[in-house]
Amino acid sequence: MSGQTSLIMIIIGAALVNNVVLSQFLGICSFLGVSSQIKNSAGLGGAVIFVITIASAVANLLYTFVLDPLGLDYLQTIVFIIVIAALVQVVEMFLKKTMPALYTALGIYLPLITTNCAVLGVALNNVSDGYNFIQSVVSGFGTGVGYTIAIVLLAGIRESLEGNDIPKPVKGAPLVLFCATLMGMAFYGFSTLG
């Protein structure tokens, strides 16, 4: 398989086949919490794409050139969390200065990217899968795109259901979880691609 084909397969695998939210069930908190409006969901998705992609790159470099050669593999989780926290701070400052409305709309969910297990999970998976630098970056980008696809789709579903007559016991969280379950089942169909 050529290098470009391999990278395309990594992107498709990360975005659709092994979707971080709908197949691996990572990052559920912000997925359910922010997905009420497409605009906010797309904004958070963009922030997640940026953080996961850069975190994957930095984590790969740190692991390859510092942790592994020095025999400090056991510190990878702590080091990766520190890198992710720093990146989220940069994103938070950028959004606060350039897009205050989006910053306010995302609220607590923006800092939660720091503890989003999806971001850490991708960095750890890239190391455990033995990805090189380019493969790690592509995997991180694909995962972020997959997260964005999932959260924007759920937001679209939630917005379209907003004006409908829905029985009271099903409104709110039960309906969101039901929609997310159906989405997960639909994305499970992509597993035949892998």
Topology, number of strands: 0
Name the average pLDDT. 87
Q: What's the order of the H and E elements? A: HHHHHHHH
The percent range for helix content is over 70%
Largest sheet: none
Strand content: under 5%
Number of domains: 1
Shape type: globular
Tally of helical runs: 8
Rg, nearest Å: 17 Å
Structural class: mainly alpha
Task: Write a structural description.
There is one protein chain. With 194 residues, this protein is an all-alpha fold. The protein has one domain (21-193). 72% of the residues lie in helices and 0% in strands. The protein has helices at 3-17, 28-34, 38-67, 76-98, 100-106, 117-128, 133-161, 173-188. The protein is globular, with a radius of gyration of 17 Å.
Keywords:
8 helices
Summarize the entry for a quick read:
The chain has 194 residues and is mostly helical. The protein has helices at residues 3-17, 28-34, 38-67, 76-98, 100-106, 117-128, 133-161, 173-188. Helix 4 packs across helix 6.
Helices and strands, with pairings:
Layout: H1 3-17, H2 28-34, H3 38-67, H4 76-98, H5 100-106, H6 117-128, H7 133-161, H8 173-188
Helix pairs in contact: 1-7, 3-4, 3-6, 3-7, 4-5, 4-6, 6-7, 7-8
